[in-house]
């Protein structure tokens, strides 16, 4: 592999790498990531935004993160995506929240109490790859860049990944929002 690669190349490479993971790998590594999160200086915060994983994409399973947050009595927020406007609506997760996959297989709350982005303290960010400067490669739809751009300036942005950082992403844009941390099963990066 030659670096730097661009986002399109990294997207293809890391989708292939994720497809190669077994269910047991995903469970084990997702738990390792959740355990690494305990070392982060975020536990004084209240509102945590968590993505719900797309099983078909072999994403990091955030169920362990949800258990961790609920065990620490945190307010958990999940989103619904509008693919026409590329906007996300943020909903408070409660025991009564009904979750249903949308047309793209993304688990989403059916309805519930909407939470303004200004309240969100910490965002767990899904990604396919990231570099040593904290730039990330997502699925290329721009949902998270738009969402993070609307958050308060001190929101803590935490990527979670099964794989370590690449040295550099070739085509980073000015509008790309950098992560503050990225956590893998074996390492914690701080940017």
From TrEMBL:
GO biological process: folic acid-containing compound biosynthetic process; tetrahydrofolate interconversion
Organism: Flavobacterium caeni
Assigned EC number: 6.3.3.2
UniProt: ATP binding residues: 7-11, 136-144
Amino-acid positions noted as binding substrate in the UniProt annotation, renumbered to this chain: 54, 59
Gene Ontology MF terms: 5-formyltetrahydrofolate cyclo-ligase activity; ATP binding; metal ion binding
Catalytic reactions of this protein: (6S)-5-formyl-5,6,7,8-tetrahydrofolate + ATP = (6R)-5,10-methenyltetrahydrofolate + ADP + phosphate
PANTHER family: 5-FORMYLTETRAHYDROFOLATE CYCLO-LIGASE (PTHR23407:SF1), ATPASE INHIBITOR/5-FORMYLTETRAHYDROFOLATE CYCLO-LIGASE (PTHR23407)
Keywords for this protein: ATP-binding, Ligase, Magnesium, Metal-binding, Nucleotide-binding
Family to which the UniProt record says this protein belongs: Belongs to the 5-formyltetrahydrofolate cyclo-ligase family.
Enzyme class: ligase
Sequence intervals crossing the membrane: none
Domain of life (superkingdom): Bacteria
Names of the cofactor(s): Mg(2+)
InterPro entries registered for this protein in UniProt: FTHF_cligase, FTHF_cligase-like_sf, NagB/RpiA_transferase-like
Pfam families: 5-FTHF_cyc-lig
The protein's name in its UniProt record: 5-formyltetrahydrofolate cyclo-ligase
């Amino acid at each position: 592999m030659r670096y730097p690669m661009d986002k399109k190349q990294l997207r293809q490479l890391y989708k292939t790498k994720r497809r190669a993971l077994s269910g047991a790998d995903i469970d084990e590594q997702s738990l390792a990531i959740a355990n690494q999160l305990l070392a982060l200086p975020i536990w004084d915060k209240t509102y945590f935004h968590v993505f719900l994983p797309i099983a078909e994409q072999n994403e990091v399973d955030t169920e362990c993160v949800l258990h961790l947050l609920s065990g620490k009595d945190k307010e958990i927020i999940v989103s619904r995506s509008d693919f026409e406007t590329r906007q996300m609506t943020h909903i408070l997760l409660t025991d009564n929240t009904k979750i249903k996959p949308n047309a793209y297989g993304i688990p989403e709350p059916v309805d519930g109490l909407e939470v303004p982005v200004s309240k969100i303290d910490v965002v767990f960010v899904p990604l396919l790859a990231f570099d040593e400067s904290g730039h990330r490669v997502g699925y290329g739809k721009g949902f998270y860049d738009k969402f993070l751009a609307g958050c308060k300036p001190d929101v803590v942005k935490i990527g979670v990944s099964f794989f370590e950082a690449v040295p550099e992403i070739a085509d980073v844009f000015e509008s790309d929002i950098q992560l503050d941390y990225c956590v893998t099963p074996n390492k914690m990066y701080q940017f």
